[in-house]
Amino acid sequence: xxxxSTSSPISRRTMLRSSGALAATSVVLAACSSSxxxxxxxxxxxxxxxxxxxxxxxxxxxxxAMSMETMxxxxxxxxxxxxxxxxxxxxxxxxxxxxxxxxxxxxxVLITARNGEPYSETNAKLMQAYGQTAxxxxxxxxxxxxxxxxxxxxxxxxxxxxxxxxxLTAEPALRAGMVQLGGRSSRRAAVAAQLINGGxxxxxxxxDQDGVALVATxxxxxxxxxxxxxxxxxxxxTGSRATVLMxxxxxxxxxx
Length: 256
What we know:
Elements: H1 58-76, H2 79-82, H3 90-112, H4 124-141, H5 144-166, H6 172-196, E1 228-232, E2 242-246
Antiparallel strand pairs: 1-2
C-alpha cells in the first residue's frame, strides 16, 4: 500500500494502514488407532528471508521522479503515439515530451547536490504495470483521439506524482522545487484537456446527455491523487473499451 497522508493542503489523500488478524480456532481430530504410523515430514521447511528495510529518503523520491519523467517522455514520443497524432496535436505532444526530458536535468542537479546517483531509466515496474499496455492498446485501436487521451492521463499522472511526493519530502526547499515541476505537468494536463473538450464549457466538470463525465480542464479545486483512468484501444463485442489504471509510485516501484 502507499502512504498518502499529509498535513499540507496540497494533498487530500489519507494514509491507509490496514492490518488484519487471523483468529486461531481449535480443531478436534478424530481418534486414530495407535498402531498406525505417524506421517513423517520429508525435507526441511524453507527459511524465511526477511525483507530489507529501505528508507524513503528525499533522494529516493527524486530518483523515482526521474524514472517517471523518463517514462512520460518515452510514452509520448513512442511511435504508437506519433504515428496517430493529428497534425494539430502532434507538435503539442512532442513539446510535452521534450518538457519531460528537460526536467531530467533539473532533477539530476537536485540529486547530485544531495550526494545521490541520478537515475536515467524508465520506471520499469510501472511501465510493465500499465505503460506498455496503454501503448499496445493505442497501436491496436489506431484511434487518433487516443493519443490525446493518453497525453492527458500521463500529464495528470506526473502532476499527481509530484503532489504525492511533496507530502513525503523532508527538506522544505525541495518541496518547493517539486511543486514547480508538478505545476508544469498540471498546466500541460489543462492544455490537453482543452484539446479534447475545448472552450469555456470544458472548464468545469460536466456530463453528456447520457450521464457520462466529460473531460474537464479544472476537474477539481485541488489536484487528485486517485488512480488515473483512461479508456484506450478498439471496442470489444459489447461496445466497451479497455480501461487502463495508472497509479503513482508506491513502495515497490520507488527507485531506491
